[in-house]
């Protein structure tokens, strides 16, 4: 049984994402790691090479800025990685996501346990969305609670819409022209959190990320080439809570280097109207109302 890890990145240093830590966090249980590296100008490719791991294979790509509707460029880069993996299982880790070393044995144990189970196609993992600094987590209904990152290798699987989730498609043509909606993967819940550091970076790099993320979703007309002078206002977030756990060891230096201390000024919080109404009810019932589920959750599987 072989496990293939893969991820994609472009100008990781410029955007302030822990792409090296991301790769290193899953490398111990992967037999290979496909690093899809976009045309970077900040030393991203060289840094991945300098990890000096025989497991890492770099695939060079050129980003097509015409693919800027609904995050299609992210799906394209993800699918390039899928085309190069050779393992029985695939572990997709994004450049701002990290796995805790304490969870690697559990992940490996479950992969081995369900390797021969024809029903189980992958695993659903919870997300910890860090915000502002490494001591706060965004915990409102505006962020996704779970997503698929580990699944059995299948030539029919493609990134769904952007690169957040995956589905099976009968034909590549149907996938590309949108005539197929795809089939959701059947997955089991796996309590091995994804440490999502998407919103922990300098205020200027966060402004760059926010603008260009919207650009690739067709919501901004212009892409910024470098971080602007204006600083991102982290305080407009709807809600955060304190993080009381431990971070992955690979993040030790990044945490030590982070010089922005965040304490939420709740008076600046901006809530979506619907979220503000529904959130108290969700807190009371301890369920997510109307949660988007791009998967079929299996139960009573031994």
Automatic annotation (TrEMBL):
SUPFAM superfamilies associated with the record: Nucleotide-diphospho-sugar transferases
Keywords: Glycosyltransferase, Transferase
Glycosyltransferase 2-like domain span: 22-172
Class of enzymatic activity (EC top level): transferase
InterPro entries named among the record's database cross-references: Glyco_trans_2-like (IPR001173), Nucleotide-diphossugar_trans (IPR029044)
GO molecular function: glycosyltransferase activity
Keyword Glycosyltransferase: yes
Keyword Glycosyltransferase: yes
Enzyme nomenclature, EC number: 2.4.-.-
Top-level taxon of the source organism: Bacteria
PANTHER family tied to this protein: GLYCOSYLTRANSFERASE, POLY-BETA-1,6-N-ACETYL-D-GLUCOSAMINE SYNTHASE
Family designation: Belongs to the glycosyltransferase 2 family. WaaE/KdtX subfamily.
Name of the protein: Glycosyltransferase
Organism the protein comes from: Chryseobacterium edaphi
């Amino acid at each position: 049984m072989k496990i293939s890890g893969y991820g994609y990145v472009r100008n990781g240093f410029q955007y302030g994402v822990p792409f090296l830590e991301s790769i290193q966090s899953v490398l111990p249980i992967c037999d290979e790691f496909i690093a899809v590296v976009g045309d970077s100008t900040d030393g991203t490719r060289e840094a991945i090479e300098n990890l000096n791991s025989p497991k890492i294979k770099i695939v060079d790509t050129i980003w097509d800025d015409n693919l800027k509707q609904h995050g299609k460029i992210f799906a394209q880069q993800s699918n390039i990685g899928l085309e190069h993996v050779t393992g029985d299982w695939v572990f997709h880790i994004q450049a701002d996501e990290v796995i805790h070393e304490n969870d690697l044995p559990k992940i490996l144990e479950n992969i081995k346990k369900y390797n021969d189970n024809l029903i189980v196609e992958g695993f659903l993992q919870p997300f910890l969305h860090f915000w502002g600094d490494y001591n706060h987590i965004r915990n409102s209904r505006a962020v996704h609670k779970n997503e698929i990152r580990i699944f059995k290798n299948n030539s029919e699987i493609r990134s769904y819409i952007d690169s957040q989730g995956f589905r099976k498609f009968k034909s590549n043509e149907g996938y590309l022209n949108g005539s197929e909606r795809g089939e959701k993967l059947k997955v089991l819940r796996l309590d091995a959190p994804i440490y999502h550091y998407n919103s922990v970076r300098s205020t200027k790099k966060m402004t760059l990320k926010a603008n260009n993320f919207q650009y690739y979703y067709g919501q901004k007309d212009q892409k910024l080439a470098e971080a602007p002078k204006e600083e991102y206002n982290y305080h407009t977030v709807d809600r955060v809570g304190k993080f009381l756990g431990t971070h992955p060891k690979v993040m030790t230096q990044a945490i030590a280097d982070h010089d922005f201390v965040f304490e939420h000024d709740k008076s600046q919080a901006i809530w979506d109207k619907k979220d503000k109404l529904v959130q108290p009810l969700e807190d009371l019932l301890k369920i997510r109302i109307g949660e988007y589920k791009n998967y079929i959750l299996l139960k009573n599987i031994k």
